[in-house]
Structure formats: structure tokens, C-alpha cells
Write a structure and sequence with these properties.
Elements lengths: L7 E12 L13 H5 L1 E12 L2 E3 L7 E5 L1 H6 L3 E6 L4 E8 L4 E3 L4 E4 L14 E8 L5 E12 L21 E6 L28 E5 L7 E8 L6 E10 L13 E3 L3 E5 L13 E6 L5 E12 L32 E3 L3 E2 L15 E2 L16 E3 L4 E6 L29 E10 L3
Parallel strand pairs: 6-8, 7-9, 15-17
Antiparallel strand pairs: 1-2, 3-4, 4-6, 5-6, 8-14, 9-13, 10-12, 10-14, 11-13, 16-24, 17-23, 18-22, 18-24, 19-21, 19-23, 20-22
């Protein structure tokens, strides 16, 4: 994606063309002084190009910003290819040292010693980066995790019930000038205004909101508690509030565009859901589309809450006939506003429509235990992911502590979710 807020720079090309005109005096075959001097003409050509994103020739950093060679050098960047028909260079900005300040759009943040694994001299240690606005009208920052590998969350087991899913060893936390609450781990864990993340999140992205204040900034903090699995390469893109790629509403930690796409929970590739999650996925409503349908690729949110460990499972354990609603999905869940089997809700029911979903299957009714597409016509299109503050409260240890009413075993590790979405055309 290409930010559209860059100033235009120009190169002045001067071409001096000397043209001598000789005159032949037919009367006396003599030349005058003026005829010897001739005339001099200066032709000027101005080449203008915007400082847009460009494709670099680097094998590590995909995009840069198009500047003149002199500008790139003076700003501390490195030239990696050409742009603007050869009049500019694709300038790469990259920082890795802790306490680095970022002021250029499209800057890459990498771990110290990248591309090698970062091995701190002492643990735990914290590596921080401050992102300053590249222009006053910036109101969103997008973080693309081109590489993100940290230690995973606390494993799910009977010994770790109180802290299962916490990013206790490594984690990335994010704050901004006016959103300063940082999530905490341990027995007194708290939510932050942005969730922490850990594990494997290569290919994911996150959005941070900035206020209208020109001095507003964002801070990324990596808490590193081991000497292994410490690699990151994050592209930082800043967007004007008027940019097409920016969500019109705040609070979208992930923002998806397109008629179709895929949404998945953080560390889904790492095969364990994270605790301490409380964020919103937003999907831009495309023109001519009024509803959205979510379909399961993979889904395991867990029991949903401490009150649902043994009852919200396959087969309706302990008398439960669903894995939906606030009474059962009270701690670990996804929320889909306006969810139903059809655009008008759940036909053939008593009018109950659930928005909270947990368990092993995604179904508008919560039961039977089969995945079924869910449709929502409530705009804007949003999907929230919330998990327990201190632990994955919906963990079902039925394989370790059998339930006498158990119809089918519940896997002990809630993986999270991976859903495809497809917008539905209509006349809104």
C-alpha cells in the first residue's frame, strides 16, 4: 500500500546550448565582432516526483521511499534501487538499537544483530522504539510484521491453570501519547489499551491510533526474557486521516480491506491462543456490499469461561445446549455484532440471536456441534477477540481431568481462530 501524503520534490536540469550564427558579408567578405560572439540560450527542464513508496532491490526490506540521492543520504537512509524513472533512489530507513527514534515514513524496526537472533547480555531486558509523526496530519500507524518470532505464551497444563496463555517470557507492548495503559502479566494481570502479543506472528499487522496533536508519538517495547526466539522485522507506515487505507473509526487493532479475506487470532501459527486479548478487527465495507459472512477455516476458542470449562463442549456437556451468549462465553470469546444464520437472523427460533461465540465450533445457534457460516448486516463490519486477563479461563482439561458426563474430549490447548470473510452485495 502506498501512502498518499508525501511532498513533491523537483530536480532542476540545466542544459546550456551555445549556438553560433555566422554571417557571410557578401559585400566585403568580413565578419563583425557581434557576428563572432554569436548567442547563448539556456534551456531549463524541471522533473517533479512525489515521495511515494517504492519497491526496493533489497532482499530484506521490500519497500522504501522515493527521494533524490542527496536527500536519502542526508536523512540517514540507504539507496536500494531507483525510482521516478531513474531520477530518484528507493531510500530504505532501518533502526535496531534500543531507544531509537523514528521520524521517516516506511521505516523498518529490526532486532539488534538482525537478521541473526538477538541474544541480550542480561535477561530480562527491554528494547524500546519511539515513532514520531513524519507529518502533522498523521493519525494512524500500521505495523506490518514481516518477521515476528518471540517465545510463545505459557503452556496450557494443569500446573499452569492460573497463567495459561500469558506472554510471561517475551512480549511486545504498544502505547501512544494519549493511550498509555500497558497490559501486565502475572497474578495481577491487566488489560492494556492495546493487547500484548508474543509467539509467532509473521505476516500479521496491527494499527495504532494517534491524536491530532503534532507531537503525539507511539512507543513499542519488547520485553525479552530468554536468549532464544528473539527476531523481529517490522515495517512502520504512517497514514494521514484522509488516506483511503485508513479506517474511519478508531480502535481497529486490525483493519482489513477487500471483498474477501482472512482473519486469524495472534499466535495462531504458534498453535495457542493468547491471554490478555481485548481488541477489534475491522473490515472496510466495500461499495455496493451490505452484509458480511464469516466461515471457519479453523476454530477452537475453548470453553469460554470458568463457568463453562466442563459444560460448553462438544455435545453440550453438563446440560449446556450451546456455546454462545454471555452466560457461557463470558471470558474467552469472539464477538460478531448482529450475527445470525441469515441476513435477517436465526429463522425458526424464538428470536434469540447471539453475538458472543466460544467453544470448538462456530454456529449462530451455538449447537449442534458443527461449523456453519455466520452472517452479519450490522455496519461497520467488526469482530472482537477477548480472552481472560490472567489466563485462558475457558480451558477445558477434559483429556487430563475427565468429566463423567463427557461425550467427546475437549482438546487441552485452545488454538484460537482462523476465519475467511466474504462481503455480500446488496442495496443497503
Amino acid at each position: 500500500m502506498v501512502p498518499t501524503m508525501k511532498p513533491v520534490h523537483a530536480i532542476l536540469l540545466t542544459c546550456t546550448l551555445c549556438v553560433a550564427f555566422a554571417r557571410n558579408n557578401l559585400n566585403n567578405n568580413r565578419t563583425t565582432t557581434e557576428e563572432k560572439k554569436g548567442r547563448i540560450f539556456s534551456l531549463f527542464s524541471i522533473v517533479q516526483f512525489p515521495n511515494d513508496a517504492c519497491r526496493s532491490t533489497s532482499g530484506t526490506f521490500t519497500n522504501g521511499t522515493c527521494y533524490t540521492a542527496g536527500e536519502c543520504s542526508s536523512k540517514g537512509g540507504s539507496s536500494q534501487g531507483s525510482c521516478a524513472a531513474g531520477f530518484g533512489v528507493c531510500c530504505i530507513f532501518q533502526v535496531s538499537a534500543t531507544s531509537s527514534n523514528i521520524r521517516e515514513n516506511c521505516t523498518y524496526i529490526t532486532n539488534p544483530s538482525y537478521p541473526s537472533n538477538y541474544v541480550p547480555t542480561s535477561i530480562p531486558t527491554t528494547v524500546t522504539y519511539t515513532i514520531n509523526k513524519s507529518q502533522n496530519d498523521v493519525c494512524r500507524i500500521r505495523l506490518d510484521y514481516d518477521q515476528f518470532v518471540l517465545d510463545g505464551p505459557t503452556a496450557t497444563s494443569t500446573a499452569n491453570v492460573a497463567t495459561s496463555g500469558q506472554c510471561a517470557t517475551d512480549r511486545l507492548t504498544m502505547t501512544t501519547t494519549d493511550r498509555t495503559n500497558t497490559p501486565a502479566t502475572g497474578a495481577a494481570a491487566t488489560y492494556g489499551q492495546y493487547p500484548y502479543i508474543c509467539g509467532t506472528n509473521t505476516g500479521y499487522h496491527s494499527y495504532l491510533d494517534l491524536s491530532c496533536t503534532s507531537t503525539d508519538s507511539a512507543t513499542l517495547s519488547f520485553v525479552i526474557g530468554s536468549t532464544t526466539s528473539n527476531q523481529w522485522n517490522i515495517k512502520v507506515t504512517q497514514y494521514s486521516c484522509n488516506d483511503d487505507y485508513v479506517s474511519c473509526q478508531q480502535g481497529c487493532f486490525q483493519y482489513h480491506t477487500g471483498i474477501t479475506g482472512t482473519i486469524q487470532s495472534y499466535n495462531f501459527v504458534g498453535s495457542q491462543q493468547l491471554a490478555g486479548q481485548n481488541y477489534k478487527n475491522c473490515i472496510r465495507q466495500e461499495e455496493g456490499y451490505c452484509c458480511i459472512q464469516y466461515s471457519v477455516i479453523s476454530y477452537n476458542i475453548g470453553g469460554g469461561g470458568a463457568n463453562a470449562i466442563t459444560i460448553c463442549t462438544i455435545g453440550g456437556i453438563g446440560g449446556a445446549n450451546r456455546c454462545t451468549g454471555a452466560s457461557l462465553c463470558s471470558m474467552d470469546m469472539i464477538i460478531i455484532p448482529g450475527a445470525g444464520q441469515t441476513p435477517t437472523g436465526n429463522p425458526g427460533t424464538t428470536g434469540e440471536n447471539y453475538e458472543r461465540f466460544c467453544g470448538l465450533n462456530l454456529n449462530a445457534l451455538g449447537f449442534p456441534a458443527v461449523n456453519s457460516p455466520i452472517i452479519s448486516c450490522e455496519c461497520p463490519f467488526e469482530l472482537d477477540h477477548i480472552t481472560g486477563i490472567e489466563a485462558l479461563n475457558g480451558i477445558g482439561f477434559t483429556s487430563l481431568v475427565p468429566d463423567p458426563l463427557m461425550v467427546a474430549p475437549l482438546p487441552s490447548v485452545p488454538q484460537g481462530f482462523q476465519l475467511s470473510y466474504s462481503q455480500i452485495a446488496g442495496s443497503c
